[in-house]
TrEMBL record:
Keyword ATP-binding: no
Chief location bin: membrane
UniProt membrane topology term: Multi-pass membrane protein
InterPro entries per UniProt: Cyt_b561_bac/Ni-Hgenase, Di-haem_cyt_TM, Hydrogenase_cytochrome
Lineage: Bacteria, Pseudomonadati, Pseudomonadota, Alphaproteobacteria, Rhodospirillales
Subcellular location: Cell membrane
Coiled-coil ranges from the UniProt annotation: none
GO biological process: respiratory electron transport chain
Domain Cytochrome b561 bacterial/Ni-hydrogenase: 22-198
Transmembrane segments: 24-42, 54-72, 114-134, 168-186, 219-239
One GO MF term: heme binding
Keyword Ribosomal protein: no
Name of the protein this chain belongs to: Cytochrome B6
Length: 242
């Protein structure tokens, strides 16, 4: 079979174009969250509580940033651009098994992927917040920085949430990874690479829809992320010294 004719400089075929998809703040958030979740899991296994706590604080700052960026960030990073009703989600899901690339390609998160973003944000946010109030002796009598401001009943509930919710995170992360691999292997769509480089190849007829994405300055995103980090650090520091 003859190889498709490509543009030597761009690697494009006549039927596809390279388009900018994800801004730097979204990509930084995504991979920083992956690293923080892995670190949190590993330090939990190794009973490295100080690093475990730092990973949790990092996750909290990242979640806070993504919520803000979901309102003021690039147009396809905003919640309003990818959160849809159940009818569109189910309609998209029905197309996935046999749908073409053109049918499944969006200038951002697809309807199902958009809700997965929200689910993951909620779950990891709950995990990070519950850790602030947790108090237990399995971690060398570790107390979260805000446990002194909570009753014993609240601390006990937060412990239960912290130990239970992590299982939901494992399920959600597993589904997320499975979906990415499904698109890569079955649909031949490298969504993982697009989240690394910010660029994706799409059918040429869809390229114009990506030109409508309004990208915000990465400096703004980094500044917001830094502020979120300072806020979380300030809360933890004040609580520890109070």
């Amino acid at each position: 079979m003859a190889e498709p004719i490509t543009d030597d400089k761009s690697g494009e075929t006549p039927a596809e174009k390279k388009v900018k998809l994800w801004d730097f703040p979204v990509r930084l958030f995504h991979w920083a969250l992956v690293a923080a979740i892995i670190t949190s899991w590993w330090t939990n296994q190794q009973v490295m509580i100080d690093l475990h706590a730092i990973a949790g604080y990092t996750i909290l700052a990242l979640v806070l940033f993504r919520i803000i960026w979901g309102f003021v960030g690039s147009s396809n990073a905003r919640f309003s651009s990818f959160l849809t009703g159940p009818k569109r989600v189910l309609g998209y899901a029905s197309k996935v098994p046999k749908g073409s690339v053109a049918e499944l390609t969006y200038a951002g998160h697809n309807p199902a992927g958009g809700w997965m973003v929200v689910v993951l944000l909620v779950l990891v946010g709950i995990q990070a917040v519950s850790g602030l109030f947790a108090s237990e002796d399995t971690f060398l009598f570790f107390d979260g920085p805000l446990v002194a401001y909570a009753s014993s009943d609240v601390a006990r509930i937060m412990n239960w949430i912290h130990h239970t919710n992590i299982n939901l995170i494992y399920v959600a992360v597993g589904l997320h990874v499975f979906a990415a691999l499904f698109y890569l292997v079955v649909k031949r769509e490298n969504l993982i690479g697009a989240m690394v480089t910010g660029v994706r190849k799409v059918p040429a007829e869809l390229a114009t829809s990506f030109q409508t994405i309004r990208f915000k300055s990465p400096v703004l995103g980094i500044a917001i992320l830094a502020i979120c980090g300072v806020i979380v650090w300030g809360i933890v520091t004040l609580a520890r010294s109070g």
